[in-house]
Amino acid sequence: MRRLPLADQLPYRFHPPRVSRFWVRASRPYRCRMLRRTHRVEAVDIAGTEHLVPLLGRGDGVLVTPNHPDHADPLMLFELGDRLRQPFCFMAAYQIFAGSAGLRHWLFPRIGAFPVDREGADLKAFKAGVEVLAGGRSPLVIFPEGEIYSMADRLTPLREGAVAVAVTAAKRLAAAGKTAWIVPAALKYRFLEGHDPRPALEALMEDLEARFTWWPRTHRTLVERLYDYAEAVLALKELEYLGVTRPGPLKDRLANLRAEILDRMEDRRDGRRRTEPAPVRVKELRRACLEALADPATTPEAARALRHDLNDLFVAVQLFTYPGDYVRERPTAERLAETLMKLDQDVLGVDEPTPLGPRRAILRLGPPIDVRARLAALGKPRAAIPALTAELEDRMQELLDQIGPGTGIVSRG
Question: Which domain-ending residue is among 297, 321, 346?
């Protein structure tokens, strides 16, 4: 996965959204070119707009929550806004605002994007999201998975922040007799019909094998080669962190190593092991490390140890993005491509791998959730937020399942 600089490397600056229809329209040719050339999306399939269109222009808050499997996802939501002639606002990782000599700081807010520090308690971004929804003029897009996990068929546990924004906005809107809506969305990418992705898949597999000084293992299927490689990479990490390799299924070994890294760090920090999903545990530990790094009393030796911990936390998230059974469960070309491109990032150091063939992007919108009605049924927001998040997760996974599996792959590599 992509390693973004943290607050100790790139200071966070907030820029509120200042949506300009002119700049949204003016940016469209560039966005379309990026979608085709950089992300190799040559066809777009959008359905379910009948769930969203009736909510627009009535003064209610509208939150669109897609999954986040690919770097092309924001451009697909821009495409949806273009088709509806409706600018959207986007909550985005603040690191993407850096660079371009400050141009992004100026342009991104004008096309609807505003930054969030996903590692901290970012009240400015939270309040900005609430303001967008309470204003009722532009729909807000939040990717509730929080990271790009490169698993389009399988949703990872949602963070509660997106629903918390919608619940807070719904409470404000209730005084005017209005509500906030959450519109679940699902994104997937499929190789174009008639395109054979095998040569590109095999070429990348050979590049990865060459990093281990292996000869191309063409006597094995692509799935077998991928899992052989995964076992080898994991064995190296086990030796690094545990001093030994461990037996057992790949899925269990990945989960055990991730838990070992997080358990050890929590034991050292405060002696309390948490039960939340790995991304939540990592976020809390990162926050503690960054706060300690910002403390003037932290010694250089302690700072080096904290940076080592931050690296270990990134490794824990990397391990989380490989569930171990994703490709073997359903060996499609798309699942193979997602996993190989992720290894291209993690092992070969490619910052943003190029997709392995021309693709069709699929976006589906589902029936909206009335947040005010859910609050009335569920009671206090503290209880409503986790319940709504669980409902949203189920709705999004259902949409992903309805899109169906990807392109079958032949049995031999």
Answer: 346
Question: What CA dihedral angle connects 28, 34, 36 and 39, to 10 degrees?
Answer: -140
Query: Are 166 and 269 members of one domain?
Result: no
Residue 173, Ramachandran bin (φ over 0: left; ψ between -120 and 50: alpha; else beta): alpha
CB atoms near residue 308 (< 10 Å):
11
Q: Is the pLDDT of residue 271 over 50?
A: yes
Q: What is the per-residue pLDDT across 132-169, written as a single tens digit (0 to 9) for each?
A: 999 999 999 999 998 899 999 999 999 999 999 999 99
Count of residues for the chain?
413
Q: Which two tokens stand for residue 340?
A: 């190989």
Give CA angle at 259 (258, 264), nearest 5°.
Answer: 110
Q: Count up the domains in the chain and report the number.
A: 2
- Confidence at 7, pLDDT banded by 50, 70, 90: low
CB 152 within 8 A of CB 400: yes
Q: Provide the residue type at 39 as one letter.
A: H
185 and 364 in contact (C-beta within 8 Å)?
Answer: yes
| pLDDT per position as a tens digit, 331-390 | 999 999 999 999 999 999 998 899 999 999 999 999 999 999 999 998 788 889 999 999
In one-letter notation, the amino acid at residue 213 is T
Q: Is 152 helix (H, G, I), strand (E, B) or coil?
A: coil
**Which residue, chain included where needed, has tokens 């291209």?**
344
Are residues 116 and 152 located together in one domain of the fold?
Answer: yes
Distances (CA, A) of 387 to 167, 279, 393: 12, 19, 10
Distance of alpha carbon 309 from the chain centroid: 22
Nearest to 326 by CA among 227, 187, 186: 227
Contacts (Cβ under 8 Å, ≥6 apart) of 240: none
Do residues 161 and 185 both lie within one domain? yes
Say how far apart CA 335 and CA 337 lie, in whole Å: 5
Alpha helices of 27-67 — where are they, by DSSP H?
28-37
Distance CA 44, CA 354 (A): 18
Chain Cα centroid distance, residue 202: 26
Q: Which domain holds residue 332?
A: 198-346
Q: Strands 359-365 and 180-191: what pairing? A: antiparallel
In b/e form, how buried is each residue of 79-98, taking b as 16+ CB within 10 angstroms? Answer: bbbbeeebbbbbbbbbbebe
